[in-house]
Design brief:
Radius of gyration: 22 Å
Structural class: mainly alpha
CATH class: Mainly Alpha
Strand order of the largest sheet: 1-2-3
Number of strands: 7
Distance between the termini: 25 Å
Shape: globular
Number of helices: 18
Strand content: under 5%
CATH architecture: Alpha/alpha barrel
Number of domains: 1
């Protein structure tokens, strides 16, 4: 039987909308700009004079005081006022990866904005690891108390509890992800600020050593478990973060010690497991794509299994080529995985598709999925389908990015966006006084430009409902992955293949 070419194969996917729901060409450059601007709305700490989302104000200025240490800065991960280091570090890793892979395609002004967003997160992560080798800070703020309030970050009067892990207690997941974030960020800053890049890399090494020396999940520590679970508990194990951190340190340093670590620990740490997911808690698919670059470009045969696993993951995205896919699609063509904020899956997978397609193109490779062959063009087209869905090519004809187009979510699950700005309403709004703003059906008064919400259900349905946080809450790790995707398509708007 003849093998279909990648484009023919792509057309067998349930991804094409009917003509009535197809939209005009998208302004990917505008989407890129807005996706980066979103991070300014998530800032914690003392805001700079060039803050573009001017409805935000300073917040969390006493963070760290219980340890007599400065832990100001960083990002609120979503619509609440907590700084969870586990997903924050992952967001920085994704943002750094987006810049390293596609920064050259960004307009200079947006590359500068992306690096500013990256530095804001890195500066905080540097504070979190500054007391290593004995202590790593993993979170600021008590989520159980915070989630009982609806108040602006500028008004926070809830406990700003600091969660720290002291050796020999383990935090391999958070420390490993922090190592990855600082390592990839060192690459992003290498040309524009080599001194800062060197600082990031040195601290990445320290974070990885802590992760490896004291192996275990941070959420297994009794002293912090109630503060991190079930919000960002380590559900899938810490082993993937060890390999993930080592892989990024290998790429940033070129040192053989990290290559040896990956080779010697791959099977021990389960490198060939859970290949069908990539998110804040499971790095396996991303790890396989990252290490495949080393295999394909460096010819290191002992890494061949990572390429096989990466190929297997890509095949699971194509229903017609896989009998054991764990990936579902909505009728409108959106990648769907049950549980939580769905667009995080579409975002992270879109980034992996584009990164892997770049590696395959540069090495003239394709993927064998049974009797079918997939080329890099197919992967790029699938990524484009996810991006276009988010921007409006969906059954609702709705952009899931705030401020993009005319029809987008107006009632997102986000405290700062939904409450009156401190600039317009300087009077203090207490914990329960914000409930009236949460319960109203009025649109949010403050536009969180660029925020990408959790997205629709498996049937493509979406209600613009602030209370439905799984659909209406934005997160930094959704946006961070889409920064890379928007960058690619902004530079290649008419020729995604």
């Amino acid at each position: 039987m003849s093998r279909p070419n990648p484009v023919t194969l792509f057309l067998t996917l349930p991804l094409l909308l009917s003509p009535s729901t197809a939209a005009a060409a998208h302004d990917y450059a505008d989407a890129l700009s807005k996706s980066i601007c979103f991070f300014e709305g998530q800032r914690s700490g003392f805001l700079p004079n060039d803050q573009r989302l001017s409805w935000r104000g300073n917040s969390g200025l006493s963070d760290g005081w219980t340890y007599n240490y400065d832990l100001t800065g960083g990002y609120y991960d979503a619509g609440d006022n907590i700084k969870f280091n586990f997903p924050m570090a992952f967001s920085i890793t994704l943002l750094g990866w987006s810049i390293v892979e596609f920064g050259d395609a960004m307009p200079p002004a947006e590359l500068r904005n992306a690096l500013v967003a990256l530095r804001w997160g890195c500066d905080y992560l540097l504070k979190s690891v500054s007391q290593l080798p004995n202590r790593i800070f993993v979170q600021v703020g008590d989520p159980n108390i915070d989630h009982n309030c609806w108040e602006r970050p500028e008004d926070m009067d809830t406990a700003r509890t600091v969660y720290a892990v002291d050796a020999p207690n383990p935090a391999s997941d958070v420390a490993g992800e922090t190592a990855a974030a600082l390592a990839v960020s060192s690459m992003a800053f290498k040309s524009s600020d080599p001194g800062y890049a060197d600082t990031l890399l040195k601290n990445a090494v320290k974070a990885f050593e802590f992760a490896d020396n004291y192996r275990g999940a941070y959420s297994d520590n009794a002293g912090i478990r109630e503060g991190v679970c079930p919000f960002y508990c380590d559900f899938d194990g810490y082993q993937d973060e060890l390999l993930w951190g080592a892989a990024w340190l290998r790429r940033a340093t070129k040192e053989d010690s990290y290559l040896n670590y990956i080779q010697n620990n791959g099977k021990i740490l389960g490198a060939d497991e859970n290949i069908n997911e990539f998110g804040w808690d499971n790095k396996h698919a991303g790890l396989n794509v990252l290490v495949s670059k080393e295999f394909l470009e460096g010819g290191i045969e002992t890494l061949q299994s990572y390429k096989s696993s990466a190929d297997s993951f890509m095949c699971t995205l194509i229903p017609s080529t896989s009998s054991s896919t764990h990936i579902e699609y909505t009728p409108g063509g959106l990648i769907y995985r049950p549980g939580g904020s769905n667009l995080q899956h579409a975002a992270s997978i879109a980034l992996l598709l584009l990164v892997y397609s770049k590696v395959l193109s540069s090495t003239s490779q394709s993927i064998a999925c049974g009797s079918d062959m997939l080329g890099p063009d197919t992967l790029r087209q699938l990524a484009k389908r996810q991006v276009d869905y988010v921007l409006g090519d969906n059954p609702n004809g709705m952009s899931y990015m705030v401020g993009y187009g005319d029809n987008y979510p107006r009632r997102i699950h986000h405290r700062g966006s939904s409450l009156p700005s401190i600039k317009d309403h300087p009077q203090f709004i207490a914990c329960k006084e914000g409930s009236v703003y949460f319960n109203t059906t009025d649109p949010n008064p403050n536009l969180l430009v660029g925020a990408i919400v959790g997205g629709p259900e498996e049937d493509d349905k979406y209600e613009d409902d602030r209370a439905d946080f799984r659909k209406s809450e934005p997160t930094t790790y959704i946006n961070a992955a889409f920064v890379g995707a928007f960058s690619y398509f902004a530079a290649n708007p008419g020729n995604p293949g």
